[in-house]
Design brief:
The chain has 194 residues and is an alpha/beta fold. The protein has eight helices and six strands; from the N terminus they run αββααααβαβαβαβ. The protein binds flavin mononucleotide.
Length: 194
């Protein structure tokens, strides 16, 4: 099952993946920064750090490279559903640097994605810490809250894509399970230079 990547930006690419034997396709992500105007501020924080968040930075687009907006993304889901028979899994990639107010954004778009016909939804949650007073446990708790909020709003299966950089990954995985995750998508630790 091909994971989120630019291969799914064109309907033809999705068809080719189906023809090549894919049993489902995860669409490239709708980036939360496309939904909000905070992206430049976040971009600043990301660029001013080192490569300490490789799981995000290796594919995080430059602001000028943002792909389709929310409306187009929903149309893309519908078009993909018409074009192929395999399940189409949409993906939201969103940070939570604005705290709890963000949960509303996740649930709103999750519902629209379900309405557009997606068979499932993958949440790629990330947090880029810029506040040194915030303990890691609280950040992990927000992951649970986002998942629970989305699960309460949609009927389609919801998977969570997690980076490998948690102090106790198995604990977080179990909590995601308990919070209602229908699947976990694990990312590899990339070798240096990847
Ligand atoms: C060019 C490129 C674009 C990607 N775009 C996304 C994306 O939009 N959303 C997402 O969640 N992951 C994205 N990813 C991450 C992949 O889905 C995958 O998790 C990552 O590449 C690790 O898997 P791999 O070792 O098989 O490459 C992207 C990766 C690459 C290389």
């Amino acid at each position: 099952m091909p994971s989120a990547s630019p291969l799914s930006e064109e309907i033809d690419g999705i068809k080719r993946m189906e023809d090549a034997g894919a049993s489902a396709v995860v669409l490239y992500s709708l980036f939360e920064e496309q939904l909000r105007q905070e992206r430049l501020e976040l971009h600043h924080h990301m660029e001013s750090g080192t490569f300490s968040f490789p799981e995000a930075l290796t594919y995080f687009p430059e602001p000028e490279e943002y792909r389709l907006g929310p409306e187009e993304y929903l149309k893309h889901i519908a078009a993909a559903k018409k074009a192929v028979r395999i399940p189409i899994i949409a993906s939201i990639n969103a940070g939570m640097n604005n705290g709890s107010s963000l949960v509303g954004g996740w649930t709103q778009y999750a519902k629209l994605i379900q309405q557009a016909g997606a068979d499932a939804l993958e949440l790629n949650i990330y947090y880029i810490p810029t506040n040194m007073t915030l303990p890691g446990g609280e950040i992990e708790h927000t992951y649970e809250n986002i998942l629970k909020a989305v699960k309460a709003e949609v009927k389609i299966p919801v998977a969570v894509k997690l980076s490998p950089f948690f102090t106790n990954f198995a604990n977080l995985a179990r909590r995601m399970n308990d919070a209602g995750a229908d699947g976990l998508v694990c990312q590899p630790v990339l070798p240096a230079g990847h």
